[in-house]
Amino acid sequence: MQTPHRTPLRRISQEPAMSEFIDETETLQTNVEGLKHLSDTLDTFNESFASWLYVMNMNALTVDWPQAPHDGSFILAERRAERNAITAMQALQAQLQAKSTRPSSIEGSVNDQTTIIADPEATFTMNSNNSSAPAKTKKVVKGKKLKLTAKEKKERALELERIITFLPLEFRGSDPNLRRNMEAVIEGMWDAPNQTVKLPDLIKPPDLNQARANKCLIALVNRKIIKKESSTGTVLYHWQGVA
């Protein structure tokens, strides 16, 4: 029997070559899509990694606190603020009482002079008696230590905290000892007559030495919280406050 003549296309159509070609094409398409997905994933990773490197670079330029505050830190801070407020209020109340006693002493001296003029013969006796009386009064005033009310303590503590916020970071808690020295300097100026002091008036060794007191005064002068004056030949510091 004679075999029928077959052209190439006719032979291909009768065999599974096209179906295999279609399968391979689908496999190739799947692999290409997988590569595209991998490329997108790598792009996302590159962006995330670049962001992480940028954050690490920025973190190197910021302040790295050695230890985060815990519950004990807040308790100690509250105790220290309360102790400082009590000390400041006691000093303020003592200053107010000292000012209130001045008019009475002036009135007493005026009465003494009137008595001396009225009785010239008793001048020597009256002077000797009156000169001893003010001395006793001054000793009694210095011996008293007044306590401030809770409201006055709170107001003074809040004012002190507000002033500290205007100062550089090292005075706001970066260095606890330096902050304590700054609080002592501010309270010393508040308690001084007319709120005017000299540098030696603020020195309280060993904690508050001359170098630390001078550093605190320089910071206050730079923030215009106090005013430095040397017109009289002596360097004086006048309290200005903050607006």
Describe the protein in words.
- It is a single chain.
- The protein is mainly alpha-helical and 243 residues long.
- Among the domains are: 74-164; 172-243, Winged helix-like DNA-binding domain superfamily/Winged helix DNA-binding domain (Arc Repressor Mutant, subunit A).
- The chain is 69% helix and 4% strand.
- It is built from eight helices and three strands; from the N terminus they run ααααααβααββ.
- The chain has a three-stranded antiparallel sheet.
- Helix 3 packs across helix 5.
- The longest helix is centred in the middle third of the chain and has 48 residues, at 71-118.
- The protein is rod-shaped, with a radius of gyration of 43 Å.
- The relative contact order is 0.06.
- Residues 113-146 have low confidence and may be disordered.
- InterPro entries: DASH_Dam1.
- Keywords: Centromere, Chromosome, Chromosome partition, Cytoplasm, Cytoskeleton, Kinetochore, Microtubule, Nucleus.
- This is DASH complex subunit DAM1.
- It holds the Pfam family DASH_Dam1.
- It is found in: Chromosome, Centromere, Kinetochore; Cytoplasm, Cytoskeleton, Spindle; Nucleus.
